[in-house]
Recover the amino acids of this structure.
């Protein structure tokens, strides 16, 4: 892979992916919304350039770069947290934008479209999540991600592009959303406020953003490999596949919370058990990453303690 396009590059996964691609020697074209205050999160690197294109502009954007690109990573999504997750009209627009991204990928000469799915596509499930685990979404965000994955795959194939869909579990790291469990806990601990939680009995799977970015880069490289021959000749072509991305290990959420406290503010009290569980609370979340490891060789490298340490050392405000 020599050149890649990334949407949604200002969040934890997107910013880490841009850095990962550039440091691996790939040119990166980032589609940005000009007025976004989060554009400063995009890594400053000689191989990274920006082009003005909000999601609603994807249908009209044209390739004026004078070159073809290899992989299109579509991470941008509105209403990924908060009340927007169940705003059906907003989520429906996200599906359209995902289809617009596929068409843009074609115009920019890409051979592979990589879309960011979500654990929300599964709803509440038992056991490790695999590509074949039944999908039963329970909110607009999950419905839309599931629909986008299926429709972008078929549309990509109509246009002659390869397609990979990655159902991403809980990723943390620099530039994560302020309301995520980890970021809000760190902020409250910093401010001397006792953070409140449910009983935190959920078994959870957390993955550091740098590891997630490495997995996405390796999927892009596997999907555009020239040295192994055509897709039909490769040992394991990836076109059309779904992958689940997480650490592959689950621990009680309370253990993560205490570990965050012990690293960031030793001895500070925690309000575990002070909040009720949300309706339809997911109680078990863990990825089966065997397919991803088989097809790319990827394995997570960053333990949770090390990841929180990297997060605290990074140059950002939480």
């Amino acid at each position: 892979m020599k050149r890649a396009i990334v949407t949604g590059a200002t969040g934890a996964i997107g910013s880490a992916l841009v850095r990962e691609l550039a440091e691996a020697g790939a040119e990166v074209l980032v589609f940005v919304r000009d007025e976004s205050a989060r554009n400063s999160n995009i890594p400053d690197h000689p191989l990274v350039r920006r082009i003005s294109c909000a999601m609603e502009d994807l249908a009209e954007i044209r390739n004026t770069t004078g070159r073809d690109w290899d992989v299109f990573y579509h991470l941008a999504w509105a209403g990924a947290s908060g009340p927007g997750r169940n705003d059906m009209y907003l989520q429906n627009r996200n599906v359209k934008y995902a289809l617009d991204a596929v068409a843009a990928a074609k115009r920019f000469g890409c051979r592979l479209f990589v879309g960011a799915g979500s654990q929300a596509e599964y709803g509440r499930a038992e056991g490790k999540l695999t590509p074949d685990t039944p999908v039963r979404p329970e909110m607009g965000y999950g419905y839309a991600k599931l629909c986008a994955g299926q429709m972008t795959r078929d549309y990509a194939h109509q246009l002659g592009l390869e397609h990979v869909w990655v159902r991403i579990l809980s990723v943390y790291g620099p530039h994560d959303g302020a309301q995520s469990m980890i970021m809000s806990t760190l902020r409250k601990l910093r401010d001397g406020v006792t953070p409140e939680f449910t009983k935190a009995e959920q078994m959870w799977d957390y993955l550091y953003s740098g590891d997630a970015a490495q997995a996405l880069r390796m999927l892009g490289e596997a999907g555009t490999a020239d040295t192994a021959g055509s897709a039909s000749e490769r040992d394991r072509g990836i076109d059309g596949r779904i992958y689940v991305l997480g650490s592959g290990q689950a621990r009680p959420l309370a253990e993560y919370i205490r570990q965050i406290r012990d690293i960031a503010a030793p001895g500070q009290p925690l309000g575990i058990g002070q909040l009720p569980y949300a309706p339809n609370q997911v109680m078990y979340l863990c990825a089966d990453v065997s397919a991803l490891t088989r097809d790319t060789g990827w394995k997570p490298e960053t333990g949770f303690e090390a990841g929180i340490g990297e997060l605290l050392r990074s140059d950002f405000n939480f």
Remarks:
- The chain is about 35% helix and 15% strand.
- Residues 3-173+206-246+287-300 form a domain with the Rossmann fold fold (CATH 3.40.50.720).
